[in-house]
Design a protein that fits this description.
Elements (H helix, E strand, L loop, with lengths): L1 H16 L14 E7 L3 H14 L3 E6 L1 H7 L8 E7 L1 H10 L9 E8 L2 E8 L7 H22 L2
Antiparallel strand pairs: 1-5, 2-3, 3-4, 4-5
Helix pairs in contact: 2-5
């Protein structure tokens, strides 16, 4: 039961990440994504992604291997889909002291999947256009870290 719920939640996360700029976004919310792709094998990119997360002093808090679980349940040709959530408590503390309402942006999230022979890695970026200049500066720094993580994973 728990495993089924985890798969459903992961699929929901993947689906919501695929809705960039569509009318399915909540009113008043703008979501900006950073994406990169590579020809490298999926498992190699996944390993590099985990390494990049750790090297940037984040801890993985959840990893859902959605595609693998669907294949294990009988759909042998289902492609790979993974979601990885991660956090750094020092960064989280800083952010929450600046703006407690920013909790809605935690944890950081990266998705991976294959399409047309390429491995795609994608993360949502944090908004830098609030009325809080200190939060905007903090999110700009975090966005650079998120981009670096994605870039490291796909680097050939």
């Amino acid at each position: 039961m728990f495993r089924c719920l985890a798969v459903l939640i992961s699929l929901f996360c993947l689906a919501s990440c695929a809705l960039v700029g569509s009318s399915a976004e909540p009113p008043g919310e703008y979501v900006l994504y950073y994406q990169a792709e590579t020809q490298k094998p999926y498992e190699e990119v996944l390993d590099e992604l985990k390494s990049a997360i750790a090297e940037n002093n984040f801890r993985i808090t959840a990893h859902s291997r959605v595609g693998k679980v669907i294949r294990e349940r009988g759909d042998k040709d289902f492609p790979d889909f993974d979601t990885i959530q991660f956090c750094n408590l020092t960064h989280a503390r800083t952010m929450l002291l600046i703006a407690p309402e920013a909790i809605k942006y935690m944890p950081c999230n990266v998705v991976m999947y294959q399409r047309n022979g390429k491995t795609i890695v994608r993360t949502h970026l944090l908004p830098t256009d609030s009325d809080n200049p200190e939060l905007n500066r903090f999110f700009e720094e975090m966005n650079e870290k998120l981009k670096a993580i994605v870039d490291f994973a796909v680097e050939e």
